[in-house]
Design goal:
Length: 436
């Protein structure tokens, strides 16, 4: 048969009785479905992430023990079911079609494993096989322990410049934690952390309780029972201000000694904190003289002053790392003497009585000698040439209750204007003759 003849025969075969040929195909398909439904051949279906339900867990808790699932074996990643196709179709593809259980009554002798039982939610008697990717629940059984911990509230982040964290108030200050003895033994502290970055106003929030070991590492609490997991925390935000410290002293040192007037302090200023309208009222912190009493001392007073004791109401120190203790020194030195003299011609005679024309000096020398007393630094600053010296008849009259003067010699007290911290050891009198 040549090529053309074959082609003609092929076309004739498919072009004749087309309807019968189509009907034959349809009948064949129907018969195939009928056969399949009658015989119901086996099929397979996979199910993902089937949770394992734990039965009779009370047998563990009644013994005062805890149960911990290891390696995520309480979820079976894959379960394969083999059953007649009709059963597979009825079961569907949902994970609810598979039931996985682990009965704690079947716990292994070494208390590390429990067999997992798999079944279908229905048609169990028609399921040929059911197999999971794991068949054992891995567990850790330990004695149960309970502890009570104080909760410490802390803040983190960078607060807005010019502000500090004030008081932190907690709704509760203790937490009760229960769990496996080995995990409870690792717990060292409980904290709640409040983020304060950028805040200028008080914060009120709910904060989760976090557990830490002795090295400051946060612990996983998934296997632990806590009576509370979060608490309410209020954080006070305060404005700050830097103000100078002012010190004063009181009392009289031992005889022959005096304070120099110099008070040295470890800090000359501190930062205070409080509500803005409160700290705006204060420009300094004054330590009262009673805090630095030098009575009877013959050497420098070294004292420690607690600034906290002298802060105004509703004001505190801004630096939480500064405890407020300040070292203060009040310097005390021995009083020195210095003998000096002034020429009589440099002494002014004031208020010569009426009716008298002049006076004369009745001293054997042309100068008057006297002794000044004071601390060395003050005596060194005395410049006699810059001082005014005088005697005054009016003062003399008042002192001696004299209503009228007569010619004669009078001993008038020498008066001079000395700087602070310097005085005359003894009064000095100058003899003056009053001329009619």
């Amino acid at each position: 048969m040549n090529k053309d003849t074959f082609k003609q025969s092929f076309v004739k075969f498919f072009s004749q009785n087309i309807g019968l040929k189509v009907l034959s195909i349809v009948v064949a398909i129907v018969l195939w479905f009928i056969v399949i439904n009658i015989t119901d051949p086996p099929d397979k279906q996979s199910y993902k992430n089937i949770p394992v339900r734990i039965l009779n867990q009370e047998v563990i808790s009644e013994e005062g023990k805890t149960l911990e699932i290891l390696n995520d074996t309480n979820v079976i990643s894959n379960v394969t079911v083999k059953a007649p196709r009709s059963v597979i179709r009825e079961l569907g593809s949902s994970s609810d079609a598979i039931i996985a259980t682990a009965d704690m009554n079947n716990l292994s002798y070494d208390e590390t494993r429990v067999p997992i039982q798999l079944s279908g939610s229905k048609f169990n008697d028609k399921i040929e096989s059911i197999k999971g990717s794991i068949d054992t629940l891995e567990v850790s059984i330990e004695m149960r322990k309970t502890i009570q911990l104080p909760i410490r509230a802390v803040t983190s982040g960078d607060i807005e410049s010019g502000y500090v964290v004030g008081d932190i108030t907690q709704s509760q200050n203790q937490v009760r934690v229960s769990g496996p003895q080995s995990k409870i033994a690792k717990i060292s502290s409980a904290y709640v952390d409040v983020q304060v970055t950028g805040f200028k106003e008080n914060i009120s929030t709910s904060a989760d309780i976090e557990l830490y070991d002795a090295d400051g590492n946060e612990l996983d609490t998934s296997s632990l029972d806590m009576n509370i997991t979060s608490i309410k925390v209020d954080v006070e935000i305060l404005a700050t201000k830097k103000v100078p410290l002012k010190f004063e002293s009181s009392g009289t040192p031992a005889e022959g000694y005096d304070v120099t007037g110099i008070i040295d302090a470890e800090y000359d200023s501190v930062a205070i904190a409080g509500l803005q309208n409160v700290i705006d009222r204060y420009d300094s912190i004054t330590i009262p003289a009673s805090a630095l009493n030098v009575s009877g001392l013959s050497s420098t007073l070294n004292a420690v002053v607690d600034i906290n004791d002298y802060l105004p109401s509703r004001v505190r120190l801004a630096d939480s790392s500064f405890n407020g203790l300040v070292d203060v020194a009040v310097y005390i030195e021995k009083i020195q003497e210095k003998t000096v003299s002034v020429f009589l011609r440099n002494i002014e005679v004031e208020n010569i009585p009426e009716g008298f024309s002049s006076t004369e000096w009745e001293e054997k020398n042309d100068y008057v000698e006297f002794t000044l007393m004071g601390l060395s630094q003050n005596l060194e600053n005395v410049q006699l040439s810059q001082l005014d010296f005088m005697v005054d008849f009016s003062d003399y009259a008042l002192m001696h209750d004299i209503s009228g003067f007569k010619p004669g010699i009078y001993k008038l007290p020498l008066v001079l204007d000395l700087p602070d911290g310097v005085w005359m050891k003894e009064p000095v009198e100058v003899s003056v003759r009053l001329l009619k």
